């Protein structure tokens, strides 16, 4: 079998069609490279995708973003799908708890960090003493340097305990942010990553934490627009193509598929989950590649519940004192029948739920939803679906930083991308896009080093 030869303009093969791979492929094409993107699935979008069930378009997970996620928002603009998203004018999180009136965490108009002072002062799920302690802890977080390597040696929970935050305060406040952003509770998460999230998203800028939502299914917002944009950029997209092996050849690299096909390239970007990337890298990097497995994984489970009537008045809400972590109204986005309401329940760090049957999940979560939404007690459940992502993210635990590589490998021209690489962010949409940009810069420089400088490579290297 002969690999397809790469043209002399400088060629790049991007392996993986998630956000990191889409970004890397677009950047390399913009820089003048001849780009091929291969993806094992029959669609683009990676871990952010939609599927059809019972006539509804459901997303596998509820992926939100923040106003400060400038790289992700710029990618949506490039794809022409930013119009299919919405952004809060001002951060507001409704917080629901059984047998209590809804609470709200809403930022004020003061500059950071005072913009959250009024919301915290009125937060009814904490006592006055707990609210004062939380304010002091927030100021302590603001004084931390996320780049301090010692912060990655301890858990966020241990730090909170040393700063007077008891289990009630952690559950009612700190885990509201830690769980969806780190995919771990504070008790297990790296302090370094937690400090980054809270400083970047909540404490350093008043507007940074305003929440963005995908108003249309993810397939319409990411997958289909990405395929159009890549085609317009001249990227050769090969779907249903499993990369089985990456080898060094006389003229650069050869990427081989499970079916025996091969593609030659001057540079390769592996934009895959870390465990899959490790398997492809092991023949080239040996034990260094195997170390990526130590990043571990953290699962996410989503429950999709369709009621025969409207039971929830909130577009989204958080739960405290209930198994329900976050719930989203996806009625309009999914195309639910008139009169029905489709609620999606997002469960982060869902190790226990991963092992539950669908029937057991129904038994646990439908009563919990009835506690939060009294109208659900009279409603019929028309549909109940569970989606599970065993390896949704890397495990954002202490000692993670030393395991996360940058875009470059010891093999010149072989780059890495993915939310698990060293972007500074936890596993988020923003981190994935940033990693794609970094890998594309490395690939373009590698082409220059091989004397196959793309026509407009300076667009990425300056």
Q: Can you tell me about this structure?
A:
With 462 residues, the chain is α/β, with parallel strands linked by helices. It folds into three domains: 11-40 and 240-295 and 399-461, FAD/NAD(P)-binding domain (3-Layer(bba) Sandwich), CATH 3.50.50; 50-86 and 212-216 and 298-393, Protoporphyrinogen oxidase, mitochondrial, domain 2 (Polyamine Oxidase, Chain A, domain 2, Alpha-Beta Complex), CATH 3.90.660; 108-208. Helices cover 34% and strands 23% of the residues. The protein is built from 15 helices and 20 strands. It has helices at residues 19-30, 70-79, 117-121, 128-142, 156-162, 167-182, 191-203, 218-232, 274-285, 287-290, 331-334, 351-354, 358-372, 429-449, 458-461; strands at 11-15, 34-39, 50-53, 56-59, 65-66, 85-87, 92-96, 103-106, 211-214, 236-239, 243-249, 252-257, 262-265, 267-270, 298-307, 316-319, 326-329, 341-348, 381-393, 414-416. It has a seven-stranded mixed beta sheet. Strands 10-2-1-14-20 form a five-stranded parallel beta sheet, with helices on one face. Strand 3 and strand 4 form a beta hairpin. It is globular. The two termini are 39 Å apart. 51% of the residues are buried.
